[in-house]
Design brief:
9-stranded mixed β-sheet; 16 strands; about 375 residues; alpha/beta; 5-stranded parallel β-sheet; single chain
């Protein structure tokens, strides 16, 4: 690596705050206030820190350019990197999409070698408006909705991708989609992704995620999967049913109301909780045996950390991996990179504990073995 590289850092400090609150996103001041009022702690600074800690081998080789305070300065300094402060948010203690775009434009003017940004699809949109495809970027996944292909598979993956790119080991780039949903429609169960454009990202299949794909599985396959799950249900056990079209068929077969993009709870064939947030789930599972049914994100493979942040690390540990059922059609599994399922719980130790091989329910009395996690 010749000379000191210039790395831009943008942290959306409020990104993802609506996830554990079950609010289907974090866009809008009212949504953010509601999530914070529930006691939800923003996690994007912590996720940015995981990426920066993974980049320690670059010390002495890079300098970080960012805004004052929580938009990057604090985490970069904690990680021990030299920091150039190019400005500050318009309002002290509160950041907006305008701040993100202004910082991104400032980084373009400073001719960065790479821009790292932590957030979700809304943050990617803001960065795209300012950067376009002028400078390579790597997204640190920290939002609720992460459909875009500009993000790494997890924060550690973002740090690894940055290491390899800046060290000159993997410098080829590719175009990656910037996607986002209308959150108001999303909260009503209408999933309508829109393509906003493309940004340049490292062409690193190991660490960068695919754009989310909407699967169109055979109806018969979904019915068989639902039948398998329902037939195995036990009385006096709570079943947490995760979000997605695959799990929706389970609720349909039970004849119960369901939340397409939320988390519901069932016991003894009855709906006992609808569209639950993290705290509601935690309270619910204290006194009875609990099982969890989840599916994978099409095209990406994430079973945790994408649209189901309500199922937090403490809830996963409380339920136990032995009580988690993963359901997916064979078509969905075949679409996944390296046929692997991924986790991005926000807890790197838990992600390591979840790694290994699992049986995925792919039909009636039918199981497919899949790997979970990437090789270290």
């Amino acid at each position: 690596m010749c000379g000191v590289k210039k790395v831009g850092l943008i942290i959306n400090p409020i990104a993802g705050v609506g996830g554990k609150a079950g609010l289907k996103g974090s866009d809008g001041e009212a949504t953010q206030k509601e999530a914070l009022a529930k006691g939800i702690k923003p996690e994007s600074p912590d996720k940015a820190m995981i990426a920066l800690e993974t980049m320690q081998e670059l010390k002495g080789k890079i300098e970080i350019y960012t805004y004052e305070g929580k938009m990057g300065q604090e985490e970069a300094e904690k990680a021990g990197f030299p920091v150039h402060v190019t400005g500050k948010p318009e309002t002290s203690g509160h950041t907006t999409s305008t701040d993100t775009e202004k910082l991104a434009r400032a980084l373009v003017n400073e001719n960065m070698d790479l821009i790292l940004f932590a957030g979700g699809d809304g943050t990617a949109r803001n960065v795209y408006r300012a950067v376009g495809d002028k400078i390579p970027v790597i997204g640190i996944p920290a939002g609720v909705k992460i459909h875009s292909g500009v993000y790494a598979i997890n924060p550690k993956g973002a740090g690894r991708a940055a290491n390899q790119f800046l060290e000159g080991k993997m410098t080829k780039t590719k175009e990656a989609e910037v996607m986002d949903l209308d959150e108001e429609l999303y909260r009503k169960g209408v999933i309508c992704p829109k393509l906003y454009g493309y940004m340049a990202v490292p062409d690193n299949k190991k660490t960068m995620q695919n754009v989310k794909m909407r699967s169109v599985p055979q109806i018969v396959s979904l019915d068989y999967i639902a039948t398998d799950v329902v037939q195995s249900m036990q009385d006096d056990v709570i079943y947490i049913i995760g979000a997605g079209t695959t799990t929706r068929n389970i609720m349909k077969l039970l004849g119960l109301e369901y939340t397409l993009i939320g988390v519901d709870a069932v016991c003894c064939g009855k709906l006992i909780g609808k569209d639950l947030d993290e705290q509601e789930l935690w309270s619910l599972i204290q006194d009875k045996p609990t099982k969890l049914v989840i599916t994978a994100i099409g095209g990406q493979g994430h079973i945790f950390g994408r649209g189901n942040q309500q199922i937090s690390p403490r809830i996963i540990r409380k339920i136990g991996m032995e009580n988690i059922s993963i359901v997916a059609t064979k078509e969905k599994l075949l679409s996944l990179p390296e046929r692997r399922l991924l986790t991005d719980t926000g807890d790197p130790q838990l992600d390591r504990e979840l790694a290994g091989y699992v049986k995925v329910i792919t039909g009636l009395n039918e199981r497919t073995i899949c790997a979970v996690g990437l090789e270290e």
